[in-house]
Amino acid sequence: MKSYIKWIIYSLLIVLVGIQFIPTSINQQEITPYTDIRKVYTIPDNVLTILEVSCFDCHSNNTNYPFYSRIQPMAMLMDKHVREGKEELNFSEFGDYSDRKKRNKLFSIQNQVKDGEMPLSSYTLMHNDAKLTANEKKLIEEWITNL
Ligand code: HEC
């Protein structure tokens, strides 16, 4: 092998091992706070399941971490998604939002789901079960319309 190729491979390996030491936070909470969306609205079981499977990893205080998501650089990516996702919409803190903000967020959920923007495609690549079927989209849409 040409020496510079070896050099590149060794460097990459060192970087890959090195980044494993970058700490990332774990987004998990034991309790269900009173501000949780489940305590704010009645959510039919089938809709709740959809939200839990497809949205809660990034939009709640409880993320399920499959083993690969604790390996860098995936852990950093997940961390970023959770931080940015919760900033925009946190189902665990929904009860703290003003009435106006609640309405806006529900409207935004309908739109993001209808347009296929959420869940993020980089996420459904690894979480096939999080992809929303046409019927699941309809269930979310109807639940919000009937609130
Ligand atoms: C992999 C993480 C991830 C998943 C899973 C995910 N989201 Fe998001 N979501 C984000 C991030 C990051 C943002 C902010 C940046 C952006 O809009 O791309 C966001 C933004 C949003 C917004 C915009 C909020 C606003 O006020 O404009 C809504 C609404 C939303 N998500 C709803 C959902 C719903 C509903 C689901 C499940 C069907 C879902 N998301 C699944 C990461 C995620």
UniProtKB/TrEMBL annotation:
SMART domains: Haem_bd (SM01235). Pfam families: Haem_bd (PF14376). The chain crosses the membrane at residues 7-26. Keywords: Membrane, Transmembrane, Transmembrane helix. It comes from the Bacteria. Residues 13-147 form the Haem-binding domain. This is Haem-binding domain-containing protein. It comes from Brumimicrobium salinarum.
